[in-house]
């Protein structure tokens, strides 16, 4: 699971860097429109495809860290055995959902490569296949993350502790 966590962290850092670059692109586009009356060509298409990629790149780490959306109202009022059953059900449903997304998205990703599918017209054409394959890959990885978390939970390991790094404790002064 260590390698999976390292890859999930790398994907998360990649998505954060991507968001930063998108912010710079938006600023440049706005300045170009405002100051020079000339926007950056393809900004809309780049942003449109990037939002999907950035979102899905963050999924695996969200699963491993236990930060996927959940309601604890029911879970907090159950006994330990029933809570485990509910968590196992949730892990399995998450794995099935993202495996289904990966499976359903693969044909369109292959078709996008075969057809050379792109968005945009004129000077800027953005190919869609990289984002489509990112969706397939990160969905499959999220399904694997759910299975890994399920196994860890069944073994009684603390899932969130594997992801969060321990905070350094202050060293007491010697007297």
UniProtKB/TrEMBL annotation:
GO cellular component term of the entry, any: plasma membrane
Pfam families: DctQ
Topology within the bilayer: Multi-pass membrane protein
Alphabetized UniProt keyword annotations: Cell inner membrane, Cell membrane, Membrane, Transmembrane, Transmembrane helix, Transport
GO BP annotations, alphabetical order: C4-dicarboxylate transport
Entries under InterPro entries matching the protein: DctQ, TRAP_DctQ
Oxidoreductase is among the record's keywords: no
Molecular function terms, GO-annotated: transmembrane transporter activity
Domain Tripartite ATP-independent periplasmic transporters DctQ component: 22-155
Subcellular location: Cell inner membrane
Residue stretches spanning the membrane: 7-26, 46-64, 84-106, 126-147
Keyword NADP: no
Location (main, coarse): membrane
Oligomeric form and interacting partners: The complex comprises the extracytoplasmic solute receptor protein and the two transmembrane proteins.
Family: Belongs to the TRAP transporter small permease family.
Function: Part of the tripartite ATP-independent periplasmic (TRAP) transport system.
UniProt-recorded name of the protein: TRAP transporter small permease protein
Species this chain originates from: Primorskyibacter sedentarius
